[in-house]
């Protein structure tokens, strides 16, 4: 019963956080590992649980997404599909012990991205500097490979990449981020499922509670005025989870 409660609570919390400010993986992934799900399978299951939220967010931003040029959007989605598939395959061929050793560093990277991402995006928007052509697509491909391999901090990394590419409209950037995250998660989840990496009993609990949390979070998001405090809380959770996984590996 304790395991069911922790999984349901973490899923609900992850749904709320993803709807309001992102960072839900910092709750769902460690909870799945604590429940005894192997790290690679926990990563795949947490991504699956977050997928409906990504799809719903992309639909909510459909008007802003349509503002992108059709040709640019096709290129971005093509890179997303390729990157998501490559990242998922990379996860499949990673030995369990190696992935367990990499997890603390991935959590650290995701925490830093979440903490510093908004500052980086603002600075990029003010500077007006951007990368274009193959370099821009290569940057996006690298972020998508990361997202297919490990979902934590993906949204912030995508926003930073869009800032480097030269986008300045935050609503348009958010809409595109949600679309890319949705497509990326679908590609990754299909690959994970085909490889038998989904822990279905845990997914049922975490997924349902995550969907409920996403709905509640969407309602709360309209009333929350001090998002900075929430972001600080998420960063604190990320730091705590990172330290715990480092300690676990050292032990």
UniProtKB/TrEMBL annotation:
Its main location: membrane. Keywords: Cell membrane, Membrane, Plasmid, Transmembrane, Transmembrane helix, Transport. The chain crosses the membrane at residues 31-55, 76-93, 99-119, 155-172, 179-198, 204-221, 228-247. Pfam families: TauE. It is a multi-pass membrane protein. Belongs to the 4-toluene sulfonate uptake permease (TSUP) (TC 2.A.102) family. It is found in: Cell membrane. This is Probable membrane transporter protein.
């Amino acid at each position: 019963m304790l395991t069911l409660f922790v999984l349901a609570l973490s899923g609900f919390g992850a749904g709320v956080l993803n709807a309001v400010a992102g960072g839900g993986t910092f709750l769902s992934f460690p909870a799945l590992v604590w429940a005894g799900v192997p790290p690679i399978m926990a990563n795949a299951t947490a991504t699956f649980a977050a997928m409906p939220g990504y799809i719903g967010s992309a639909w909510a931003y459909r008007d802003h997404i349509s503002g992108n040029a059709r040709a640019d959007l096709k290129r971005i989605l093509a890179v997303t599909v390729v990157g998501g598939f490559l990242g998922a395959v990379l996860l499949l061929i990673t030995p369990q012990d190696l992935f367990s050793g990499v997890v603390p560093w991935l959590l650290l990277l995701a925490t830093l991205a979440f903490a510093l991402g908004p500052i980086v995006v603002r600075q990029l928007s003010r500077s007006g500097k951007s990368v274009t052509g193959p370099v821009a697509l290569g940057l996006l491909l690298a972020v998508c490979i990361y997202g297919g391999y490990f979902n934590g901090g993906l949204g912030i990394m995508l926003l930073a990449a869009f800032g480097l590419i030269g986008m300045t409209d935050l609503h348009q950037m958010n809409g595109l981020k949600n679309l890319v995250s949705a497509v990326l998660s679908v590609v990754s989840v299909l690959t994970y499922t085909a490889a038998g990496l989904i822990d279905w009993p845990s997914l049922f609990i975490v997924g349902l509670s995550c969907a409920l949390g996403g709905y509640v979070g969407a309602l709360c998001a309209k009333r929350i005025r001090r998002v900075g405090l929430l972001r600080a809380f998420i960063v604190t959770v990320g730091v705590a989870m990172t330290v715990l996984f480092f300690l676990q590996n050292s032990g």
